[in-house]
Design brief:
The protein is an alpha+beta fold and 180 residues long. It has 2 domains: 64 residues, Ribosomal protein S16 (S16 Ribosomal Protein, Chain: A); 84 residues. It is built from 4 helices and 5 strands; from the N terminus they run ββββαβααα. Strands 4-3-2-1-5 form a 5-stranded mixed beta sheet. Helix 1 crosses helix 3 and helix 3 packs antiparallel against helix 4. The radius of gyration is 37 Å and the shape is elongated.
């Protein structure tokens, strides 16, 4: 039986969520599988991957072939590197301790890169929010200046009308006693 490590799609329309499964190559994509070895959520940034490392490594060692996307996920998590290093140990290129040191160094470097990306994304988000707030403050200041200008113009236009009304009332009051 030819086994594949592949993704089974779940989630709603437009918001996928995948299970990383080991399945017979003839089985349907979302159908029967042998074992679920992890999950993959591409909707987060960076993507969230939960993988049973040892089980994935086992299935690769017994001959399961990953699909292209599953291969990228396994590579990102270090399963393919571990398999490669174990192959070198088996051939006698280096011992298991050296392989473990190389793998741990790679894991540390990978985690540092992941944390740097998360920090960068958080910083970009802060900068974008700050820029948005500054733009909103600028627009608000422009609107307030425009409103103040219109109010000043309205008051200036109303002032001569009030003076005319005051003069007209004063003349009317002056005329009323004269009419009596």
């Amino acid at each position: 039986m030819a086994t594949k490590i592949r993704l089974a799609r779940h989630g709603r329309k437009g918001h996928p969520f995948y299970h990383v499964v080991v399945a017979d190559s003839r089985a349907p994509r979302d159908g029967k599988f042998i074992e679920k070895i992890g999950t993959y959520d591409p909707n987060t940034n960076p993507a969230t991957i939960n993988l049973k490392f040892e089980r994935a490594l086992y299935w690769l060692q017994v001959g399961a072939q990953p699909t292209l996307t599953a291969e990228k996920i396994l590579s990102d998590q270090g399963v393919l590197l571990k398999k490669h290093l174990l192959g070198g140990v088996k051939k006698g290129a280096f011992d298991a301790a050296a392989a473990e040191v190389k793998f741990e160094a790679w894991l540390k470097e990978k985690e540092d890169k992941r944390q740097a990306k998360i920090k960068k994304l958080a910083g970009e988000g802060d900068l974008k929010a700050k820029a948005r707030l500054e733009a909103e403050a600028k627009v608000r200041a422009e609107r307030e200046a425009l409103i103040a200008k219109k109010k000043a113009e309205a008051e200036a236009a109303a002032a001569p009308v009030e003076e005319e009304e005051t003069v007209a009332t004063e003349t009317a009051e002056a005329e009323v006693p004269a009419a009596e």
